[in-house]
Design a protein that fits this description.
There is one protein chain. The chain is about 75% helix and about 0% strand. It is built from ten helices and two strands. The chain has a two-stranded antiparallel ribbon with strand order 1-2. The longest helix has about 35 residues. It is elongated and about 75 Å long.
Length: about 300
């Protein structure tokens, strides 16, 4: 791809992903001059490929980029697929957030817990960017083929919810100045590994149409439930040995139970994502019955 075409594609991608409001903003982010941005965009604006407020007609975008001679398959230029990279980045960030939250518990490190909580702000911003991009796609493309685009918002929201549960884990370290029983920590390590793997597999299922991964995800969910039950039994036995007058210690066990529950909820959300994947890629309808009532 020629350098001029590569720069133009970078401009188009920037418009799609980050919704810049001015040509100055585009130039600053790409490290080029505003005059060069104007020169490259002028023909596309005149042909109504780029519309007011720097919104791209996605069908025209595909035709323009294909004309550059890019090796990227044309199917990867559709409006829906352009959101995939954003979801993939959000997924990777949420996995890092989960890792940081777990390490803060493992090391009982309140500073690392604070850093993990700060990562949630980025998670929320990533969700907002995806939601805005999806709204743009739906607004400028009314064809039925884009009607499923709203499902991207659903998956992004699921990732944001996972980020919230990561926050619950980190807050435990900040609010409770006490270590965790070794047996519970061993189970928690397994809970972390299983839930992290479930995020990877569920997002792989959605982003790459790998519906067959659902079996592996369900196996991991069963493992999560088993580990949760073991951990909750240990907590229950320790609570039974605690005096009713020791309110602080009793509250500690309650909050610890919420941490264990957070890992399970992350797993449940991953199952929801893989169910969405089946609907999105294979038109497999999701059950309207809440998962808690399914057997």
């Amino acid at each position: 791809m020629k350098k001029r075409n590569r720069t133009l594609k970078d401009i188009l991608d920037l418009i799609l992903y980050e919704n810049p409001s001015t040509q100055e903003e585009i130039a600053e982010k790409l490290g080029i001059t505003r005059r060069y941005v104007t020169e490259l965009l002028k023909p596309l604006i005149e042909e109504d490929i780029i519309k007011k407020a720097y919104v791209i007609d996605l069908k025209s975008y595909e035709q323009v980029v294909e004309s550059f001679g890019s090796n990227i398959p044309s199917k990867d230029m559709s409006g829906n697929i352009l959101i995939n990279d954003m979801l993939d980045n959000m997924s990777r960030h949420v996995q890092s957030q989960l890792e940081s939250s777990f390490i803060s518990v493992l090391e009982n490190d309140s500073k690392k817990a604070e850093e993990a909580l700060e990562m949630d702000f980025i998670t929320n911003n990533l969700f907002d960017k995806i939601r805005n991009s999806v709204e743009t796609i739906i607004t400028i493309n009314q064809e039925p083929s884009f009607s499923k685009s709203v499902i991207f918002n659903e998956v992004a929201y699921d990732l944001e919810r996972i980020g919230d549960y990561c926050g619950h884990i980190a807050k435990f370290v900040i609010n409770e100045n006490q270590g965790i029983d070794d047996d519970i920590l061993k189970n928690m390590d397994k809970l972390y590994e299983s839930s992290r793997k479930m995020i990877q597999l569920s997002m792989d299922s959605f982003l790459n149409s790998k519906i067959e991964l659902k079996g592996d995800i369900m196996d991991l969910e069963e493992k999560l439930h088993s580990l949760q039950n073991k951990s909750m039994n240990i907590i229950a036995m320790q609570m039974a040995e605690t005096s009713f007058d020791d309110v602080e210690q009793s509250n500690y066990y309650i909050y610890l139970s919420r941490v264990i529950k957070a890992f399970e909820r992350i797993g449940d959300i991953c199952v929801e994502i893989v169910d969405v994947s089946g609907e999105f890629h294979k038109n497999i309808p999701r059950s309207s019955t809440p998962r808690a009532f399914r057997e």
